[in-house]
Amino acid sequence: MPSNSDILIEAKGVDLSFGGGAVLNGAGAAVRDAEIVTIIGPNGAGKTSLVRVMLGLLQPQKGKIYRQPGLRIGYVPQQLSLDPALPMTVWRFMALGVTRGGRGERRRAALEEVGAGSVIDRPLQELSGGELQRVLLARALLRQPRLLVLDEPVQGVDVTGQAELYRLIGRIRDARGCGVLMISHDLHLVMAATDHVVCLNQHVCCAGHPESVTRDPAYIEMFGEQVAKTMAVYHHHHDHAHDADGNIVPLADGGAQGEETAQEDGVKLQ
Amino acid sequence: MDDFLFRAVLGGLGVALISGPLGAFVVWRRKAYFGAALSHSALLGVALGLILGVNPVAGVLAVCIAVAVILVFLRRGRQLGSDTILGILAHGTLALGLVAVAFLETVRFDLMAYLFGDILSVGVEDLWLIYGGGLAVGVAMAALWRPLLAATVHEEMAVVEGVNVTAVSLAFMILLAVVVALAMKVVGILLVTSLLIIPAAAVRPLSVTPEGMAGLAAVAGCLSVGFGLWGSMAFDLPAGPAIVVAALILFFVSQLIPGVGRK
After folding, report:
1. Chain A residues with beta carbon closer than 8 angstroms to that of B25
2. Residue B216 in domain
3. What is the CA A49 to chain-centroid distance, rounded?
C-alpha cells in the first residue's frame, strides 16, 4: 500500500473484534483524491466495520488510521430511519449538517445536482428509497466534502435506479474531484463505477482495478467460480432514462441525467 | 385577579414555555420513560436537600444526574432492556424518596404538594427561580439546538460531521433535570413528564419542521395551563391534575386533525 501525499484516508492492519469474535483481521483500505474505492465482500465480512473504524466511529484493537488533517467528510449512512414523531422536511434536513452555507439557493442547487429538486418540500419520512438516498447525498455534498463515504448507497433502490445512482456518484467525482469510499455487496453494478476494489472477508483478499480483481483467484474463491466466470463488464444503450424511483423518463428531458445516461456501464450475469 | 392566581398563571406559563422545546426533544429521542425516571427520582432529591440543609432544587439536580449516570452504567450490562432499567430506577428512587421523607419528621413537609404540585402557592421567589432557570435553559437549548437535532436524526452521521454527541446528550439530560426541578412546583413529581410529552405529542399533526413543533408545543403547554387553572377555579379542581387533563383534552382533539401535508 503506497503512501502518497494525495491520500485522504487510510487504514492499515486493522484488527477488530466484538466480545471475542474477530470481525477484522489485518484489514485496510485507502482513498486518494478523486478516486472511487469500493469495498465489497459477503455478508459479515466486516465492510461496514472497516469503514466505521476509518471514520473514527469504532476503536480497533490494532491498526493505524490516517485521516488528512482537516479532512471534510460527507457521510451517507446505510439507512436513516427517522422517528415519525420528528417533523422534518427535506428543505430543513438539508441545513442540518452545515453551520453556515446552508442558504436557500445552495440547498436547492445541491438537491438539483443529484436530481432530487422536486422533493424539496416533502417530509423526509415519505420519500422512497431512491429519493432518500439522493437527499442524503445532496446533504453530504452541501458540506463541500473532500471525501464522500457511502455505506451501501443503493440499498432499497431498484436495479435501474441503482445503475443511475452509481453513475451519479461518478459524475459527482468528476465534477468535484473528491474522493469516494463506498461499500457494496452488489457485484453486478458497482464494478464499472469504481476505480479500485477492495475485496474484504475479515482481511483483504484481493484489491485492485475491478477487471483484474474479477480474475483474482481469491475473488473467485470468495464469490464462487460460476459467478466470477460469468461476470463481464458490458455496455449497452438505452432509449430512455430513469428518475430516482426508476420511473421511465425520456432522454431529452435532461435535468438530473447527464449525457452519458444513454450508455450504461455495468456487469451482468450472462 | 387575585395575587396568588396571577402568580400561578405566570409560574405555569413559564414552565410551559420551556417544557415545549424540551418536551419535543423528549418525544423525538424517545426519552419519555427517561423523563419519568428523572422526575420520580426528584422526590429523593428534595428529601436529601432538606436533610442536608441545601436548596431542594440542588438536591433534585444532583439526584437526577446520579440517576442518569447509573442508567448508563446499568445499560452496559446489556442483559436488561432499557424500559426495565428505567422502571426500576423510576420506582426505586420514588420509594427511596418516600423513605427519605420519613426522616424529615422535624421538618414541615407537604408530601402531596411535591407529588401532585402546588401551583396556587407559587411565590415571588418561585417565579424568580422559574423564569431565571427557564431563561438559562432556553439559552442553552438555543446553543445546543443544531448539534442536538443532528444527533437525534442520525447519531453516527452527527459524529462524522464533528458533533460531540456524548457531550450534547449529557447537556440535554442536565437541562431536562433542571426543567423537572422547575416544573415540580406546578404539576408535581408524578405528573412532570406529562407536561413535557403531552403538549409536544398534541401538536405533532400540526407541525412541519422541528422548530415549528417545539414552538407549538410551548403554545399548547400555555393553553393547558390556562384552561387547567380556569377549570381549577371554576369547578374547584386540584390545579396540577387539571392542567394535565386540559393537555390531555388538547391531545385527543388534535389527533382528529389530519396531518399537515399528508394526502
Report:
1. none
2. yes
3. 15
